[in-house]
Amino acid sequence: MDSSDSEVTHVLLTAEEATVREQLAQREIGSQLNAHIERSLRMAQHLDEQAPVGTVPIPTDSRSVQDIAMRVVEAADR
C-alpha cells in the first residue's frame, strides 16, 4: 500500500458536562477535583472548536468501551 492510498479519519470522543463531572468525581479525590473538572471542560471546548473539518464526534455518555470502539471503526469506514 502506497502512502497516497491512505486516508485519515478524525474522531472526537465527547461527553456531556454531567458525565465529565461524574467520571472525574469517581477517580479524583481531594481539593483538586474542581480544578480537574474545569480543565477538562475547557479542553473539551477547545477540541470542539479546533477540530479539523470533517471530524466525527462520537458521544461516549452511557456507552461501553466496545460500543465506542465500534462507532470509531464505523466512522473510519465512511
SSE layout:
Blueprint: E1 11-14, H1 17-27, H2 33-50, E2 56-59, H3 65-76
Q: How would you describe this protein?
A:
By secondary structure, the chain is mainly alpha-helical. It has one domain (8-76). Helix content is 53%, strand content 10%. It has 3 helices and 2 strands, in the order E-H-H-E-H. The protein has helices at 17-27, 33-50, 65-76, and strands spanning 11-14, 56-59. Strands 1-2 form a two-stranded parallel ribbon. Helix 1 crosses helix 2 (33-50). The protein starts with 10 loop residues before the first strand and ends with a helix. 0% of the residues are buried.
Q: Topology as H/E string?
A: EHHEH
**How do the strands line up in the largest sheet?**
1-2
The helix fraction, in percent, is 40-55%
The oligomeric state is single chain
Low-confidence stretches: none
- Portion in strands: 5-15%
Number of strands: 2
Helix-and-strand structural type: mainly alpha
Task: State the shape.
Answer: elongated
Q: Tell me the radius of gyration.
A: 16 Å
What is the averaged pLDDT score?
A: 92
Number of helices: 3
The main pleated sheet reads as: 2 strands, parallel
The tally of structural domains comes to 1
N- and C-termini, Cα separation: 19 Å
InterPro entries: P-loop_NTPase
Characterize this entry briefly:
The protein has three helices and two strands.
List keywords for this structure.
78 residues; mainly alpha; two-stranded parallel ribbon
